[in-house]
Write a structure and sequence with these properties.
alpha+beta; 4-stranded antiparallel beta sheet; 5 helices; 12% strand; 123 residues
Length: 123
């Protein structure tokens, strides 16, 4: 579709509300929305993984299995350009499974293992 639609932008205050996050997840699962790397960073900071999983139980965007849902959140963060484990922006190569951060450092992404966002590791 040309020109591409401008879409709706959500403020930081919007992202603090679980009802708005559920709405965004609903749109994402039918490909009517995307969450930017900055958006994922804020969602993880504001809600943490457990609350995002709770929002998803209502929305149904991710997998029912807890570990699969956690991996889905991590995957969505990475493909947007945000590494939640190290709290860094960069680029994820799906073919190699390598995330290269803005400083040029690389890390191989491990799937199916427990992880915590950097913001939760400090707690």
């Amino acid at each position: 579709m040309y020109p591409e639609p401008n879409g709706r932008e959500y403020s930081e205050q919007d992202l603090e509300k679980q009802s708005v996050v559920e709405e965004i997840f609903d749109y994402c699962q039918i490909y009517l929305a995307i969450i930017s790397k900055e958006g994922w960073k804020k969602l993880i900071e504001f809600h943490g993984i457990n609350n995002l999983l709770e929002v998803d139980r209502k929305s149904g965007w991710f997998e029912e299995n807890r570990q699969d849902a956690i991996d889905s959140i991590k995957y969505q963060c990475l493909i947007s350009g945000y590494d939640p484990e190290r709290d860094l922006f960069g680029e994820y190569n799906e073919d190699s499974g390598i995330f290269t951060d803005i400083y040029g450092e690389t890390i191989e992404i491990k799937w199916g293992v427990n992880w915590k966002p950097a913001t939760e590791q400090q707690l």
